[in-house]
């Protein structure tokens, strides 16, 4: 099939300074977390390993994007394989705690079944998930581990998390307003969630085309490819396999402009659109389990089948917990910048009473420019610059593009 391209575009908003949030540990967590968070929210590429080339009717990119938008699949069950390779250094599990945003200020470790921490495990490595959904009020995601399993269940007003390894249970209740907001705080875990985020980033700096067909989980699909037109982005392209019958994304693959293996590869290996049995969403804490009740009604609990209502380019979304965030540049070369409020860059050895400051500095490269001096921390997709006066610049741009943005934003 010949590629079909569309000029679908969106209008970028102006820089804003959203509400403030917690940032007490900003100087310590930025080097590790800012890249993982950006990858999950800016996450946008092509290395779709398909198993077949079905003969399907021609379709334009605009028609295929519309087909995704009109997809109304609410009932499904299946198995999803997700592989994430940001190229983060191995910190012996430290990055998992930092990515979860737990600063330990209350002196408590919390529950091992709390989804706010457990779902961040999807930010690295390869994982197998069992998923099921029956409308907006019933979903279940199970993270399969060695001889253990973690399950997150939403059934009406109840949200349950269960960690079989520790026999711990997390429970929260949500009202209708909470249910609408819960999609905003967890990274997507299915191809649909990733695809919706990627398509929200489409503007006139983006090429969108249909590039053949594929077969995923035994179903015929079209392959939609999204690529930046601009130079300077670390993003190569996004490849989305779209079910030809339902319009639901079945596979999402993201690879960097530098080449190599995918940064994010998530797709169904099995899928059924039949209604799951009602018992799938029932849960009773096992005998002897430690149950933690979450009474904070303003917390989101995630919806593994749906992306946030606002796209990854939304300044308000990215600014949660960050003071004075601004967006520099446009399109794929957009760089987010904010001030940690510390008035200084990375913590020194004297400040932390050990080698942490030097260790964090050793993970990055020293740079200087009109903004002064700073340290650039790099992954295969996201680069972050922390300046000596405590400002942070982060984006899916190359190191040189990041330094130029910091100089322009000074």
Q: Any idea what the shape is? A: globular
Q: Characterize the largest beta sheet: strand count, sense, and whether it forms a barrel.
A: 13 strands, mixed
Structural class: alpha+beta
Which percent bin holds the helix content? 10-25%
Order of helices and strands: EHHEHHEEEEEHHEEEEEEHEEHHEEEEH
What is the strand content? Answer: 25-35%
Instruction: Name the CATH superfamily assignment of the largest domain.
Output: Lipoprotein localisation LolA/LolB/LppX
What integer is the average pLDDT?
Answer: 74
Number of helices: 10
Task: Give structural notes.
This protein has ten helices and 19 strands. It has 410 residues and is α+β, with helices and mostly antiparallel strands. Strands 1-8-9-10-11-12-2-3-4-5-6-7-13 form a 13-stranded mixed beta sheet, with helices on one face. β10 (235-243) and β11 (249-256) form a beta hairpin. The longest helix has 17 residues, at 26-42. It is globular, with a radius of gyration of 21 Å. The N and C termini lie far apart (48 Å). The model is unreliable at 1-51, 91-108, 182-186, 297-315 and 348-353 (pLDDT under 50).
Describe, in short, the structure shown.
With 410 residues, the protein is an alpha+beta fold.
């Amino acid at each position: 099939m010949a590629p079909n391209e569309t000029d679908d575009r969106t209008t970028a908003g102006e820089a804003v300074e959203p509400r403030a949030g917690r940032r007490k540990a900003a100087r310590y967590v930025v080097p590790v977390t800012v890249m993982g968070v950006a990858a999950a929210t800016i996450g946008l590429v092509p290395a779709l390993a398909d198993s077949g080339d079905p003969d399907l009717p021609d379709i334009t990119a605009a028609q295929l994007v519309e087909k995704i938008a009109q997809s109304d699949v609410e009932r499904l069950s299946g198995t999803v394989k997700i592989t994430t390779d940001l190229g983060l250094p191995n910190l012996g599990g430290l990055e998992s705690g930092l990515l979860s945003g737990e600063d330990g200020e209350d002196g408590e470790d919390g529950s091992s079944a709390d989804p706010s921490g457990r779902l961040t495990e999807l930010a690295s490595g390869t994982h197998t998930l069992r998923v099921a959904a029956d409308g907006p009020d019933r979903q279940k995601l199970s993270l399969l581990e060695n001889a253990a399993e973690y399950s997150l269940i939403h059934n009406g007003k109840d949200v349950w998390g269960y960690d079989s390894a520790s026999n711990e249970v997390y429970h929260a209740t949500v009202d209708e307003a909470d249910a609408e907001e819960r999609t905003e705080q967890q990274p997507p875990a299915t191809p649909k969630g990733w695809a919706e985020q990627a398509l929200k980033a489409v503007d006139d700096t983006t090429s969108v085309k249909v590039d053949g067909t594929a077969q995923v989980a035994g179903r015929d699909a079209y392959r939609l490819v999204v690529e930046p037109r601009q130079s300077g982005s670390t993003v190569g392209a996004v490849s989305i396999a779209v079910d030809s019958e339902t319009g639901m994304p079945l596979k999402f693959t993201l690879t960097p402009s530098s080449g190599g293996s995918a940064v994010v590869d998530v797709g169904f290996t099995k899928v059924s659109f039949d209604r799951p049995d009602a018992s799938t969403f029932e849960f009773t804490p096992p005998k002897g389990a430690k149950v933690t009740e979450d009474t904070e009604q303003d917390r989101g609990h995630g919806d593994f089948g749906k992306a946030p209502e606002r796209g990854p380019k939304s300044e308000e979304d990215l600014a949660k917990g960050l003071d004075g965030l601004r967006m520099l540049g446009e399109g794929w070369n957009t760089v987010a910048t904010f001030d940690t409020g510390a008035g200084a860059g990375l913590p020194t050895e004297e400040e932390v009473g050990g080698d942490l400051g030097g260790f964090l500095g050793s993970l990055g490269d020293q740079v200087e420019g009109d903004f002064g001096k700073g340290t650039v921390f790099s992954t295969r997709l996201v680069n972050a610059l922390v300046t000596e006066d405590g400002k942070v610049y982060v984006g899916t741009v190359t190191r040189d593009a990041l330094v130029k943005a910091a100089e322009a934003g000074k």
